[in-house]
Amino acid sequence: MSLTTAHSVVAPSAGSKRIAGAIIIAYALISIVPLLWIFATSFKTPPDSIAYPPKIVFQPSIEGYCNLFTTRTRQTPEYINSLGPATGFCDETVRKRNMVIAGPSNFLPRFINSLVIAFGSTFCAVFLGTLSAYGFSRFKVPLADDLLFFILSTRFMPPIAVAIPIYLMYRELGLSDTALGMILLYTAVNVSLAVWLLKGFIDEIPREYEEAAMIDGYTRLQAFWRTVLPQATTGIAATAIFCLIFAWNEYAFAALLTSGTAQTAPPFIPTIIGEGGQDWPAVAAGTTIFLVPILVFTILLRKQLLRGITFGAVRK
Amino acid sequence: MAEIRVQHLRKAFGDFVAVQDSNFVVEDGEFFVMLGPSGCGKTTTLRMIAGLELPTGGQILLGGDDVTMLRARERDIAFVFQLFALYPHMNVRKNIGFPLLAQGMPSAEIRNRVEETAKLLRIDHLLNKSVSGLAGGDRQRVALGRAIVRRPKCFLMDEPLGTLDTEFRDLMVHELRELHNRIHATTVYVTHDQMEAMSMADKIAVMNHGVIEQFGTPREIYDRPATMFVADFIGSPPMNFLGFGGGLSKGAMEIVVQGAKVAVPEVREDLAPADMALGIRPEHIRFDDASKLRGAIYGTEYLGTTQIVAVETADGIIKARVPAEIRLNTGDHVGLTLNSARLSLFDKGSGRAVRTAIHDTASERRVQHG
Asked: ipTM score here?
């Protein structure tokens, strides 16, 4: 090593950087390959999707997406020939399999349910979480430590452990299979996480900001709104992502408590298999579309998410 | 602008008494500094004046109105925080204009007032910058701007120079005092730095353990410390103490310290025999071989214009500030003469200063303790 090169004690050496890079690339590949496989499957035809050996190179088709959004009935070729010309690309694809489109499938309403319930519960959890975190952070709350522990203790067991009591409660209250019921449930599960995460963020915002605003003529609520909230956006964004991911992916409660009008996408997607045989491209198409909102949301807020995860690791 | 009158102010946090029965008056337009070590209650007092803490007892009058229990926003005061509390999501202009926005002032007027204030503080070229990119001194000016833009009844400042570099700090001390001379705003300034206090204040209150030990002008506090704590806290190096015993009677002009007779300012009160201390500032000690008060040189700190010499006497180390030209070697025996006119006497038990001739000219400015 030449004399001009200062050797840092803390900076990793070139060799260890290379090893770390290799591990990260390997991990990324392991994580991404299944996703790519699902994405590829969604563009295969049903025979291609179950071909053995598996096809890596194939003729792309949107049959999976057609099947996902429609319900179809099998007809005789004579009947199909008696119909007029195909009205669209999906119509044409379906007719090749001796079927006609009978109507839209339930996927779109289920997907909308997922959006409403996940974003609705995330909003509620973050809203309530921010206010209570602010309260715990700034006011002398009697038994604050015990209350915070109680809030945390709701996460000590998997939520599904209380599935049966909740199922019975919801039946009594008429909340079964309603979007409101699911929003309440996911909010209740997420609010503990939100309070704890946000309390950490708000604790880090010096009180002087609000005190300055209150001396300058603002009420506490105005001070909170104008000085604390703008500085807590990172924490709020990070918390919102965590809440949204939970609510979006949740399967067990959704399968148990929803069956019709309020059913979300996760319990719906597997039912595709039962309906029209083993229609893997349609399942893959549903999964691919299901991935999109959370992907977009995470990419939009990725900076905040990263700061949120590493938050508090180093004191400024 | 208004005068601030604090009467029997008290604050307790559970069992801990942060401020005990404080009484003082800050006159209209005065620059008042509360000085003391950390945890002495100075910041708590300031926060009570601001309305950020409510007192356990006592009264705060602002321009004659009782504001003791009013909310901060109802008091019409401005506060400069140690960390400035500039809102990072707003630029300089919005930060300064923020208090005016609360009053619902029309935006054209806010604009004018903000620009006028920025000009006064010479930060008008920074108005559209983000506060996060500013240097320490400029942040300080923005924080001051936010305080003066509203023309409040008084300014409260909590160690506003505490986080600045030494270099900047001297500059800002100068600027703050100059600003005060221009706008004559009643100011309460909290610091633990005696240099800041001495160079800016019209009046100083020295606090310790929640009690105001002395209230007076910088000169009074330096020349006639009311307690041993004040004598020790103010001055660098602090006042030297030489112990002596025996009582004092009215009219006494001489005491005996370490076998040497020392002339003192005429004593104005009678005291029963007790442990006493003679207080002498380092700059009031001269070397004199004829003196009976003797010691050996322990070490020196050369400061350029003067030097601080530590002399080991029978009663511990005494520091003297002498001209830099004097050549001294460690271990040399020297005699010390004390400037009798500038001596203070203390009762060691209570720490209180004994009344002597040095207090004759002083106007009575004692603070009563409860």
From this structure: 0.81
User: Is B367 a member of any domain?
Assistant: no
Q: Does A230 touch chain B (CB under 8 A)?
A: yes
Shared domain check, B327 and B191: no
Q: Does A215 touch chain B (CB under 8 A)?
A: yes
CB-count burial class (<10 Å; 0-12, 13-18, 19+) for A223: buried
pTM reported for the whole predicted model? 0.78
Over residues B231-288, the pLDDT tens digits come to 999 998 999 999 888 788 888 888 888 888 888 999 988 888 888 999 999 999 999 8
pLDDT in tens, A8-47: 777 878 888 999 999 999 999 999 999 999 999 999 988 8
Question: What are A145-188's pLDDT values in tens digits?
Answer: 999 999 888 888 887 888 899 999 999 999 999 999 999 999 99
- Among B165, B192, B223, which residue terminates a domain? B223
**A303-307, B76-80, B362-366: least confidently modelled range:** B362-366
Which pLDDT score is estimated for B361? Answer: 66
Do residue B131 and residue B184 come from a single domain? yes
pLDDT above 90: residue A83? no
In SS3 terms, chain B reads as CCCEEEEEEEEEECCEEEEEEEEEEECCCCEEEEECCCCCCHHHHHHHHHCCCCCCEEEEEECCEECCCCCHHHCCEEEECCCCCCCCCCEHHHHHHHHHHHCCCCHHHHHHHHHHHHHHCCCHHHCCCEHHHCCHHHHHHHHHHHHHCCCCCEEEEECCCCCCCHHHHHHHHHHHHHHHHHHCCCEEEEECCHHHHHHHCCEEEEEECCEEEEEECHHHHHHCCCEHHHHHHCCCCCCEEEEECCCECCCCCEEEECCEEEECCCECCCECCCCEEEEECHHHEEECCCCCCEEEEEEEEECCCEEEEEEEECCEEEEEEEECCCCCCCCCEEEEEECHHHCEEEECCCCEECCEHHHCCCCCCCCCCC
A100 touches chain B (CB under 8 A): no
**Among candidate residues B223, B249, B273, the one where a domain is terminated:** B223
For residue B101, give the CATH number of its domain: 3.40.50.300
**Spatial separation of the C-alpha atoms in residues A276 and A107, rounded to whole Å:** 14
Same domain, B62 and B96: yes
Same domain, B20 and B144: yes
Q: Which residue of B67, B73, B74, B103 is the best one to mutate when testing the A interface, meaning the one whose CB has the most A CBs within 10 A?
A: B73
Q: Of A208, A214, A231, which has the smallest distance from its Cβ to B81's Cβ?
A: A208
Q: Residues of B numbered 139-178 whose beta carbons fall under 8 angstroms of chain A's beta carbons: which are they?
A: 146, 150
Closest-CA residue of chain B to A207: B85
Report the CATH architecture of A108-309: Orthogonal Bundle (1.10)
What's the domain range around B290? 238-359
Domain membership of residue B366 (yes or no) is: no
